[in-house]
Amino acid sequence: MSIGSPIGKVKITDPWEPHLERFKIAVDAAEFFGAPFVRVFSYYPPEPTADIAAHRDEILRRFRVKLHYLKAHPSVTLVHENEKDIYGEKAPGCLDLMKSIDSPRLRMAFDFANFVQAGQDPAEAWAMLKPYTVHIHIKDAIAGAGKVVPAGEGDGKIEPILADAYASGYRGFVSLEPHLKVAGHSHGENGPELFKIAADALKTLCRRINVPLAGA
User: Fold this and answer.
1) Global confidence as pTM
2) CATH class of 2-208
């Protein structure tokens, strides 16, 4: 279970202190609900055309502050989700975060569709980020168009990656996040009928590759 916080899903130039206080609330929520993870992001540039890499030092500083805060909250681990246009939108940025912070309390939440929409080959991303991945988001998309589709119908390479994850010992969470009705910048929607389609697609895919889903 993870707290699906929006921490880090803001411009890097937005005020830091209020956002840090929101982060502390997310940690409190994780402890209250017994959730081991809090999802975070790695910040948008000040303007859509700006280079977020120019703000790398500030991004790393903020992550180090958050990790320092977690010293008093040992049950919580941050999971960074790759998201289009943030510092860690592609595998190299994500890997830089993992290696530069170098803490077991910062790991990856791997999102297939977000990599596709960012123009990153998910298989290449998996090869780089597999050792750091503790949470997997099931969402697929079509390359180029970026359209979100049920698992296995896009270019996310979900089937071979899930098969490899299971064969390599992954027994963690898979979070179904299909966004089939609305796949917006800050939110996604499905509705009950579309969510069932997404769930059935994932179950069918996992049966095909002999990856068991608890409770499915």
Assistant:
1) 0.91
2) alpha beta
